[in-house]
Amino acid sequence: MARDPRAALEAYVAQRFGVAPAGVASVGADGGVKELGYGKPVRVSLGGAARDLVVHRSVNAGYGHDTLSDHAAEAFFAYGAFSRLPAHVPAVDVGVVREDGSFASLADARDFFYVTEFAEGTPYFHDLDALARTNLAAPADLSRAEQLARYLASIHADKRDAPELWRRRVRDLFGHHECLSGLLDSYDAFDTEAYAPKVFLEELERRAVAHRHRLKPRVHRLSVVHGDFHPWNILFDGDTLRLLDRSRGELGEPADDLAALAVNYVFFSLRAVGRFEGGFRGLWDRFFATYLERTGDQEVLETILPFLAWRALVVASPAWYPHIDLDVRRALFRLVDRALGETRLDLDAVARWVAP
């Protein structure tokens, strides 16, 4: 049963600080011409000699304040950082608001964890390793590519109306630590002259920005996604599909999931035979044909290009994949180059893009 918000706040203060509140009131906004804020602070008067407290709760206000994990990051940053800066008002506690509305302190937290069930199954990359030995796709290989496409079509059908979150997700693709800029930065630690000179990497980043502005207006595309749909996060237990590590957000562009998987058909083919052909090309064709037939989403062939470039940067990375041949890295960078130079993915052209 939900608790009365004021009573819940008073109970927390009394338990945590040993003083019954003498009063609770909203902190008056004194922002002058500034109207936007990220929270709704409440002043708690303690009475006597005790200094009053201000309890801050976040609101969903865009600008990276959209999700529960954003609120957690904001709260824990404030708790750690405010008190370390001279003259800054100190933070004296950090906590959570439970489902019933009660408050709980987490001030002694030093790390966090989560727990999942164990999933039986074999990672999908083992299928691709096996296929690499012959480059001949068996009916079971094609069937699994279809199954993965149908799964994505089903979850991507769930669209959401959240323009600010869409723009954030697009912005993340280009600026997040794990996405395009982060991957390009990671190449700084390596000698890349043999496959991607530094000036070329800088040019790729500039060209990627044009795609950000092409994606940004397409707010109607915000969908439920997995967010990291690659063969190491996909398990098969017989015909049963299980997924791992949905860690990059619940909503986004469907092309993200498509690119995360499909680039591996190219990657494994290049490693196996130095070209994109045979069984891996068959998986690529069946995967996209099934998805497009199920969804009718031809627009995804326009939005996928920067995602394909990003995922190619991942599999070409000497940090993530240190033992692949130089010719494979060169081919993957040809893919990145062409993907960022087009406005629509020609599914039949990728084999030519990666060819020497």
Task: Write up what this structure looks like.
This protein has 356 residues and is mainly α. It has twelve helices and ten strands. It folds into two domains: 5-105; 122-354, Aminoglycoside phosphotransferase (APH), C-terminal lobe (Aminoglycoside 3'-phosphotransferase, Chain: A, domain 2, Alpha-Beta Complex). The protein has helices spanning 5-17, 68-81, 125-132, 139-156, 163-175, 180-186, 198-215, 254-273, 278-295, 300-315, 326-341, 350-354, and strands at 23-26, 42-45, 53-55, 95-97, 103-105, 122-123, 223-224, 234-237, 240-243, 251-252. Strands 1-2-3 form a three-stranded antiparallel β-sheet, covered by helices on one side. A hairpin with a 2-residue loop joins strand 8 and strand 9.
What is this entry, summarized?
This protein has 356 residues and is mainly alpha-helical. It has helices at 5-17, 68-81, 125-132, 139-156, 163-175, 180-186, 198-215, 254-273, 278-295, 300-315, 326-341, 350-354; strands spanning 23-26, 42-45, 53-55, 95-97, 103-105, 122-123, 223-224, 234-237, 240-243, 251-252.
What is the H/E string? HEEEHEEEHHHHHEEEEHHHHH
Assign a percent range to the helix content. 40-55%
**What's the CATH topology name of the largest domain?**
Aminoglycoside 3'-phosphotransferase, Chain: A, domain 2
Radius of gyration over all CA atoms, rounded: 25 Å
Supply the helix-strand structural class: mainly alpha
Number of strands: 10
Give the CATH H-level superfamily of the largest domain.
Aminoglycoside phosphotransferase (APH), C-terminal lobe
Report the biggest beta sheet as strand number plus sense, adding barrel if it closes.
Answer: 3 strands, antiparallel
